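Tokens in:
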């Protein structure tokens, strides 16, 4: 498990596509888990990880359809 004292996101993704993450673990108090930037960001899969779209933010043209949760 990642142990951090900062309030930066667990995942910072910028203009990336075709990424897959599985089984990420983190402190449930983490206010923001995923931050996605760029309109080219797409097809990002996050599986077996207890997060929801409320723990994500999207900037600079990125949209919530870029990330799929399973």
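Residues out:
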């Amino acid at each position: 498990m990642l142990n951090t004292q900062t309030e930066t996101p667990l995942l910072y993704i910028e203009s990336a596509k075709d990424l897959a993450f599985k089984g990420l673990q983190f402190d449930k108090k983490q206010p923001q888990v995923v931050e996605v930037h760029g309109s080219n960001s797409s097809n990002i899969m996050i599986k077996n990880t207890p997060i929801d779209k409320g723990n994500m933010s999207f900037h600079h043209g990125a949209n919530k359809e870029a990330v799929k949760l399973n």
